[in-house]
What does this fold into?
Amino acid sequence: MASNADFKDRQFLAVIGDEDSVTGLLLAGIGHITAGADAQKNFLVVDNKTETAAIESAFESFTERKDIGIVLINQHVADRIRHRVDTYTAAFPTVLEIPSKDHPYDPEKDSVLRRVRRLFGE
It folds into this structure.
């Protein structure tokens, strides 16, 4: 069970996705850049040229930050780092896979739904 201290300072969403998804979420107001010399963004735009290592690095960075409560990631992007997404088990930040305009959502690939199915013995 998570204590209040585990999530009380987690006030931001992070997003890793294609340009349309990230732009839409930024327009909705989730964008944030930390202050200081080592400024960190809470979003990463992924395209065909983005290296898998950059996606993994952003995923690791977002899941280690103490001010992020939810990490949204396009499912087709999560597929590129599926081993990282599937092995992530922490409650906070929560990782949610979302569809994109060009790639439909496949519930069979979703790591959260697979965990829920295992819990219920399906």
